[in-house]
Amino acid sequence: MTLVEKIDQLLPQTQCEQCGFRGCLPYAESLSKGESNINRCPPGGIPVMKSLARLLNQPETPIDPECGTTLPLHTVYIDETLCIGCTKCIQACPIDAIVGTKKKMHTVIQSECTGCDLCIPPCPLDCIYIKPSEEAFVPEVGLSDMQKIRANKSRARYQARQKRSENRTTITKTLPPQEKILASRSSDADMLSLIAMAKAKTQAKHQERE
Ligand code: SF4
Ligand code: SF4
Ligand code: SF4
């Protein structure tokens, strides 16, 4: 196993980007070259920092507050009565843990969600909420057995998504330029008017209640 792979095995694989990299693997690559500090992974918190310190023979150090805080383990869920099917959360989820299609209700696959929270800010209806995890055990050093199982699943899903995205880019590159522009224009306008209508409806509901 290479050093990058050994480091990657220690990381929680939420792919949350809080370390400042586009996922756990790029952070592992940077650590392997000595270009990053071991305290940049809030989801892993102190236990993961300690395991990195041992592997890389470095002193232990508190988590860098610039990267955020370590939240208790959690997943997220969607209030399906509010969801308008804009697909923004699906696009943001790095591990394909959301299912749904355009203008239809979306749902989070609870067994796969890592609680990276990347889907929350893009939701125009603010209808994605945090749900505390029942697996609250945090070990002294490294990941718990349950976290390792989740990390292995999450890594595989992340890699599959990356692969699919690369394939899609290759296909899109082969489309004539006019078709690319027309396709993106019509879907954007469609979705913007849908969001505006849904927001107006939600506001009207609130006003009725008041
Ligand atoms: S889980 Fe840690 S290493 Fe992975 S992307 Fe998030 S902060 Fe970076
Ligand atoms: S559903 Fe949201 S919180 Fe869960 S893994 Fe996907 S983006 Fe992260
Ligand atoms: S971003 Fe929000 S409104 Fe859009 S599909 Fe996801 S949950 Fe539904």
Automatic annotation (TrEMBL):
InterPro entries: 4Fe-4S_dom, 4Fe4S_Fe-S-bd, 4Fe4S_Fe_S_CS, Elect_transpt_cplx_RnfB/RsxB, RnfB_subfamily
Domain 4Fe-4S: 1-58
Domain 4Fe-4S ferredoxin-type: 74-103, 104-133
Listed Pfam families: Fer4_21 (PF14697), FeS (PF04060)
Keywords: 4Fe-4S, Cell inner membrane, Cell membrane, Electron transport, Iron, Iron-sulfur, Membrane, Metal-binding, Repeat, Translocase, Transport
NAD recorded as keyword: no
Identification of the protein by name: Electron transport complex subunit RsxB
